[in-house]
Amino acid sequence: MLPDFYYSIEKPATGEYKDRGSKFLAYAFPIATVADFKLILARIKKEHPKAAHHCFAYRLGFENLVFRVSDDGEPSGSAGRPILGQIDSLQLTNVIIIVVRYFGGTLLGVPGLIHAYKSASYECLQQAVIVKKPVLISYRLQFDYTILNQVMRWVKQFECEVYKNEMQLFCILEISVPKIHLQEMEKRISEINGVEMEKILSES
């Protein structure tokens, strides 16, 4: 069952950890889809082309099912999992952390690497602004222009986000409804004659 709210970060944040010459630079970003992650990872790799490793972890969605970790050449389990552990320790989702390592010439061993990636991620999240956000459910509304005001009254009252808006003689609205208001929103819209309300399946 989906929660009503979730925790994420408001905007990008950075952190740093050093150990025996190696430098670990951590970057956290809010994301909404796997496509967001791919764009951000490509950008970080472009900004740090000479780094030895670009390790990461992300978690998406509200049921703890969508996540990915990468050690990017480090020993198995020494980077991605410790990064994800820091995301999960704060119960965050829709977040990616990428940790860029510049090798300092001294091997740290698996325990040292685990500590380094964990510490860099921790420092990064210490700088981040944690926010509580409503879980949003996407719907498509279709209706005649003559009842636009009636529809928009409830769209505004229940704090829905409008992300697609086609206003002609026949209107199409695509909106995100806060889950906490969903039952009441559905009830109010169903009371307006001539409105079709269809759930939009998410695509990640």
Features:
204 residues, alpha+beta, Ribosomal Protein S5, domain 2, Alpha-Beta Plaits, 2 domains, 5-stranded antiparallel β-sheet, 4-stranded antiparallel β-sheet, 11 strands, 30% helix
Verbal overview:
The chain is α+β, with helices and mostly antiparallel strands and 204 residues long. The chain has two domains: 5-132, Ribosomal Protein S5, domain 2 (2-Layer Sandwich), CATH 3.30.230.30; 135-199, Alpha-Beta Plaits (2-Layer Sandwich), CATH 3.30.70. Helix content is 30%, strand content 37%. The chain contains five helices and eleven strands. The protein has helices spanning 34-47, 80-89, 109-127, 148-157, 182-190, and strands at residues 5-9, 13-19, 22-30, 53-60, 66-70, 95-102, 130-134, 136-144, 161-166, 170-178, 196-199. The strands form three sheets. The chain has a five-stranded antiparallel beta sheet, sandwiched between helices. A four-stranded antiparallel beta sheet has the order 9-10-8-11, with helices on one face. A two-stranded antiparallel sheet has the order 1-7. The longest helix has 19 residues, at 109-127. It starts with a strand and ends in a 5-residue tail after the last strand. The mean pLDDT is 95.
